[in-house]
Amino acid sequence: MKIYPGLIVLIIATAFRESPDNRPKPQPHVITLPPALPNVLMPTFRKDTVVITKFGAVADGLTLNTSAIAKAIDQCNRAGGGTVLVPKGLWLTGPIALKNNVNLHLVNGALVQFTDKRDEYPLVSTTWEGEEAIRNQAPISGTDLENIAITGEGILDGAGDAWRMVKKSKLTDDQWKKLVASGAY
After folding, report:
1. Model confidence pTM above 0.85
2. How far apart are CA 74 and CA 68, in angstroms?
């Protein structure tokens, strides 16, 4: 087979010639940059530290420490801010509401386990996909806050299985009966 270089050039030129129909001509690429993001300042806190055990918190995994943690956060906030320290241990709690100028610090070995009991999470006014709604308070929440942080090497466990919807079609009859009897559904 003989190759004709002139024919190859003609085929390539034909492929790239301007079309006689009214197709729009390619426009140069325009890069649209996103709007400038606001500067994010690193939070700074007073050197004061409040330990949740000072308010009666118990790391036994059974005692509900919601009130003790709330009191520690409230005192820290009223004093002008600082760190609320969660020591090593298993801390069962309901929802935590953060406040201005508070750093919630979980040391290595601290596990904050949010309870799976839905009645511990009060109903609050909120929005869902832009619509007004009433929902359970989130495990960690706050409104119009400034200068807050959650730091440390500890773990926050939100008890997600308690909030996940269960489909009857995904369970056996025995599993469904057990779930309904437990009151978890």
Report:
1. no
2. 10
